[in-house]
Design brief:
Layout lengths: L6 E7 L5 E2 H9 L3 H9 L3 E5 L2 E4 L6 E2 L4 E7 H4 L7 E5 L3 E6 L16 H8 L7 E2 L8 E7 L2 H12 L4 E9 L12 E4 L8 E10 L4 E8 L6 H8 L21 E9 L6 E5 L5
Parallel strand pairs: 10-15
Antiparallel strand pairs: 1-6, 2-5, 3-4, 3-6, 7-8, 8-10, 9-10, 11-14, 11-15, 12-13, 13-14, 15-16
Amino acid sequence: MSELPSRFEKHIEVTRQDAIAVDFLATELALSKQLIKQLMQKGAVWQTKGSKTQRLRRAKKSLKQGTKLHLYYDKVVLDMRPAEPELIADEGHYSVWNKPYGMLSQGSKWGDHCTITRWAEQHLSPQRNSFTVHRLDRAANGLIIVAHEKKAAAALSLLFQQRQIEKRYRIWVHGQFDHEVTVDKPTHIDSEIDGRHARSHFSFVEYDVEKNRSLLDVSIETGRKHQIRRHSAELGFPVVGDRLYGDIKVEENLQLTAYHLAFQCPFSHKQLVFNVLNNQ
């Protein structure tokens, strides 16, 4: 087998009945069965039957004639190895995790082995499906909820939409922030993101004189893409390690932690509070 390009995709229609997935792909694409199995395990192989397209993980799956197979190869994605997440709570219908820097909230057509949802499916006992409820940037770390039933995903997503889930973040920013801006008297910023209303609240926690950086507590009323990072930069205090919106280059991971979640469980109706700072 010749050296593979770093990124490619293939789309093939199954032309015979009851073809075995790994054998069929190995023959059609001239790839090793071992590689194809790895791609399946990492979520980079899909099948389309009728109008439904989903990941194909079973190497020995018997395929019907007319099924379309899709293989997506991206060496960078496939070689990713993020740190392991920490299980904070398993509530049955859903679980709460401390997601590390580098782990994804959800996958793409190129794979899902580096996502918190796939990790949950592979490591929880009893084993369950996983569904995305909300997202946390790959570059950020902290608390994230993973649903294990569609009804749980819908119920929790509704809580987020109705702003019934309290979320708090800690960020280290470059520069000396105003000491007078406390949790009781935070700085508010209303600034549209991608044409949509966005509102964030920033308050001072502490200042590191040696590094000339400030620790801020943040809450948000909306959940726009990169909202905290963009609003913080607009205030003139870019988040340490932010390679997108910061103008000060440092070789550090993004210093943004989603440390607090509080909400009423839609199943037990108990008030739940999760805080990773309390565990440190």
